[in-house]
Structure formats: structure tokens, C-alpha cells
Write a structure and sequence with these properties.
Blueprint: E1 3-4, E2 6-8, E3 11-13, E4 18-23, E5 26-35, H1 39-57, H2 61-77, H3 79-90, H4 94-114, E6 121-124, E7 131-138, E8 141-145, H5 153-164, E9 168-172, H6 178-190, E10 198-200, H7 205-213, E11 218-222, H8 225-238, E12 241-245, E13 250-254, H9 260-272, E14 282-288, H10 289-304, H11 324-339, E15 343-346, E16 363-368, H12 373-376, E17 383-389, H13 392-400, E18 404-405, E19 407-411, H14 415-424, E20 429-432, E21 448-449, E22 452-453, H15 463-466, E23 467-474
Parallel strand pairs: 1-5, 8-9, 8-11, 9-10, 11-12, 13-14, 13-19, 14-17, 16-17, 19-20
Antiparallel strand pairs: 2-3, 4-5, 6-7, 7-23, 12-22, 15-16, 18-21
Helix pairs in contact: 1-7, 2-4, 3-4, 3-6, 4-5, 9-10
The protein binds adenosine-5'-diphosphate (ADP).
Amino acid sequence: MTINRNLIAGSWVESTDVIRNINPSNTDDVVGEYASATAEQVEQAVAAARAAFPAWSRSPIQNRADMLEKIGNEILERRDELGRLLAREEGKPLADGVGEATRAGHIFKFFGGEVLRLQGEKLASTRPGVEIEITREPIGVVGLITPWNFPIAIPAWKIAPALAYGNCVVLKPAELTPGCAWALADIISRAGIPEGVFNLVMGSGSKIGSALIGGVDALSFTGSVPTGRKVAAQAVERMIKFQLEMGGKNPLVVLDDADLETAVSIAVNGAYFQTGQRCTASSRMVVTQGIHDRFVDAVADRISKLVVGDALKPETQMGPAVDQRQLDQNLKYVAIGQEEGARKVFGGDRLNRDTPGFYMSPCLFAETTNDMRVNREEIFGPVGTVIRVKDYEEALHVANDTQFGLSAGIATTSLKHANHFRANSQAGMVMVNLPTAGVDYHVPFGGRKASSYGPREQGRYAAEFYTTVKTSYTLP
Ligand code: ADP
């Protein structure tokens, strides 16, 4: 098997250590072998990016726009193949893998356009004759640390704005899913990006991720809260600009006046699709008493029919957990929920399929309270809980009563409650009659409280992080 290497200073560089990329639907299937970078190689990548920065940051905007457009086009042309690689290495169903690859292509094309739209401001001064101009400049060398759950979309939504606004990049993807990141690096390098402008270093978070933070000018991280805290501490130590996207414990409020069919569909989609491995997944379903029993029965019925299996099989609706550690964590929380006195309505069992993989049945708990660990801690698996509440006011209180604030949803036909919820939810993203997960690529993404730190990602708001503002005063 050929070893896919790291991209440093425009060359594909070997390493002695290798990451074996395993298919979670079939652990006998090795997706590929990937070189694990050393700390010295990370330093070389950062140095290469630094050397490339002066020319890249001043390069004609048409060149940058064309390059991002070209990268986006190749991703879109190869979306089926890339989606298949994604499904194979991460375990989300093939259609979702292709959807994510498509999204990555669109993101590059969007930022190809944004290159041409970066704006400044010109203001009058309080001092006669003086002119003030406010402009945005690239930051320098940006380190990107990404998780395994969206192995092509998250790297894309960090790389594309970073390059668009004239920064140089060193990407450290998750160890579990280097395949999509490598494919993306290959596309970027063949698009003609100058050497050193984009670098890929694969490997462990504690070694490679940490070495990266030690050298860059800014850092964008997506991952878990505990890792986010470590990353933040290291970034603060160096006083670099940083941005964190982390976990969620996203509520879906279901009111008595909701359309039951809509409520059940968005709950099942939000809580169980992609095996619950989305930071925007609906984990807490907060349901008013008039619809509660009908809702619980209907969700249980729907998830009992979900086809759990190999991500690459067309009939599969829910794939495996990404690895043994994640599966163990999911099953541990199923046990914790039962110990805490929640009523297990369905699932939460280890499943066996034709191939050895990390399968489990979707799990639904009812009669939970918001102080239970299953409602406080992020599980990141197909485990949904239902909290019964009296009325809308209690539902809103419970929805906001969490350390997280990424996404929050409500199923209702009441305009009054929908509007009140949009105004009073303490989340960065609010969904009315839509799943908490599943967002557009051209608008800001991010949360509040422990879910996020720093400026939003995606859409034109990405410029907040990937540029720095300069105010210049001139007396002509
Ligand atoms: P998850 O396992 O859910 O992806 P993590 O927070 O463990 O979440 O990982 C997110 C990313 O952070 C991965 O690329 C991982 O390798 C990286 N990482 C893990 N530990 C550290 C660390 N101490 N410093 C920098 N990056 C890290």
C-alpha cells in the first residue's frame, strides 16, 4: 500500500510513522496509510508558510479567485468519489458523504467570489483635513486543527477563507480521517498554489497539533470542549488570535401546537442522522405535556425502523460510530441514563452486521430531567433524550439551561412562540420547524457560551477571523 505523505513547502514528504485509516463500517478494510508528521516537520511547514506569505498576501486578487474557483470545481466534479472516500473513512451514509463533498466544493467557489468583495471603509476625521481609512489585511500563517466528523467540509470552510484573504495555511486534520484532508491537499497543490502557501501535516493532536500552535500567527480549531480548553490555553500563552468551535447539547423544543409529523421528522433527523456525530445534533428534546406521549411513541416507532449498517450500502440510514472509543462512550452513556432513572424507550444496543464495525441501535430515553448527566454532557452519538415540560415558558428555560449554546430548535405552528424563541434562545443558531443540524454554507456558523469562542465561521463573517483591521490616518 502506498503511503500518502504530508505536503510541506510544495513537496510530498515522507515520515517513519504511519497512520492506518480504518473503515468503521468494516474494520478489516484499511482505507489507506498516511504519513504521521514529526514536530520538526511541523516547524518546517510553518517556516515554509511564513516564507510564502509576503508574495501570497500581495498576489493579485484575480489569481486567488481563480485558484479557489478551480479547487471548488474539481471537488464538485469528483464529488461522488470524494463522498465515497468520506463515507468509507468516517462512516456516514454515502449520500451524506457526497452531500458533504458537494458542500466543500461550493465553499471554495463561494470564497473565490469573496476574494473580490473584501471591503474597507473611509471616514471623515474629527480633525480638519485628516482622512481615515479602515482596511483589512491577512493575519499571516494560520494553523487549522480539524475534527473527524466533517472531514472535508470543516477543512474546506477554514482553508478557503484563509487563502481567499491572503493567509498561508498549515492544516492538521483529525488522525481518524486523514483521507479527505489528503485528497483536498492534493487538489489544492495541483491547482497551482505556490509552494508553502498551503501545507498538510497529519498526525496526533497532542504532538502535531500542539507543535502547530507553537508556531503560527493564528489558530482555528474545531473539536471537543476539553481539547478546546487546552488549545486556548496554549494560544493565550503565545498571545495569538484564535477561534474555537466545540460541542453542543442542542435542545429541540416541541410544543403542543406542533405538526406532529414535522416534529418527529426533524427530531429523528437532528438526533440520529450521521449517528448523532454532529456538534449541532439535537440531543435534548424538550416536549410539552399535551403532545409528549404521542411524540415519544412516534419517534420510537420511527427510529426502530432506521436501517443501521455499512455506510456504503445504499439502503443504510445510520452508519456506525467512528471508532471503538466513540462506541464505548455512547454505550457508557446509555448505561448512565438507565442508572440515573431515565426510561429507555428504544435501542442503545450493540449491533452486529455482516462486517466487523462499530454499530449500535439508536437510543431514545424518556422521563429524563435536565440535571441528569445524559442531558448535561455531550455524548456525540445516537442517543436522544426527552424532557417533559408543562408549557412554552418552562421549555424555553430548560432549553437555555445548559453550558452550551450552539444550535436550538423549536417545532411549533405558533408565530408568537416561534418569534419569542428566536429572540430569547441563548444559542448561536436557531431553527424553526427545521432540524438543529444542517446549515447553509454562505451564512455564519457558530455558537455561544462553551460551544464557541471568537468570531463566527463561514460566509462573509469569516473575514472577522481571517483578517486583521488597520486604521490609517492621512493628512494629504
Ligand atoms: P474529536 O475527537 O471529537 O475530533 P478532539 O478535540 O479530540 O475531538 O480533536 C479535534 C482535533 O484536535 C483533532 O485534529 C485532534 O488531533 C486535535 N487535538 C487533540 N488534542 C490536541 C492538543 N492537545 N493540541 C492540539 N490539537 C489537539
